[in-house]
Amino acid sequence: MQRPTAVYVWDPFVRIFHWSLVTCVLLNQFVLEEGETAHEWTGYVAAALVVARLLWGLVGTRHARFADWWPTPTRVRRHVHALLRGQPDDHPGHNPLGAIAMLVLMGLVLALAFTGWLQGTDAFFGEEWVEELHEGLANTLLVVAGLHAAAALVMGRLQRVGLIRAMITGVKVYR
């Protein structure tokens, strides 16, 4: 069966969410000073974006909904086996491993917002373990985001589809 040459996948909300979250993470990691108001509010914006995306996962367009891409054990197993056999395993939306990465990334952003908020409370202000946890979560987020980006590039090559371009235009174009 021949696959279509172009498929509309990512709606504007998903694309705006994705690039806004990327911007928040990059700003907080590389531009804004830790503990400063701009850093804190950028973290809260990132958390709000994740909450909005979670809600969109319930009511959004087809490929934005959890039901379309939730990484069940069966879906993950089938996808990994297909990859190991070198067979195409096309998914219009997230493939199961990409879905796991997405969920981990969103969980890390929420955990970062929570630990950042804790540092501003009377009970946890100046607590070294909270600061270290926050920093460890930030470093983990960067590693997972880097793996996610690298996987998008590799899978795009393997599947002959521009995954990065699709996150900009909303359309997966197969070559």
Q: TL;DR of this structure?
A:
The chain is mainly alpha-helical. It has helices spanning 12-31, 37-59, 66-69, 73-85, 96-119, 128-159, 163-169; strands at residues 6-8, 171-173.
Q: What structural keywords apply?
A:
175 residues; mainly alpha; Fumarate Reductase Cytochrome B subunit; 7 helices; 70% helix; elongated
Description:
The protein has 175 residues and is mainly α. The protein has a single domain (6-173), classed as Fumarate Reductase Cytochrome B subunit (Up-down Bundle), CATH 1.20.950. It has seven helices and two strands; from the N terminus they run βαααααααβ. The chain has helices spanning 12-31, 37-59, 66-69, 73-85, 96-119, 128-159, 163-169; strands at 6-8, 171-173. A two-stranded antiparallel sheet has the order 1-2. Helix 1 packs antiparallel against helix 2 and helix 5 packs antiparallel against helix 6. The longest helix is centred in the C-terminal third of the chain and has 32 residues, at 128-159. The chain is elongated. The two termini are 15 Å apart. The mean pLDDT is 93.
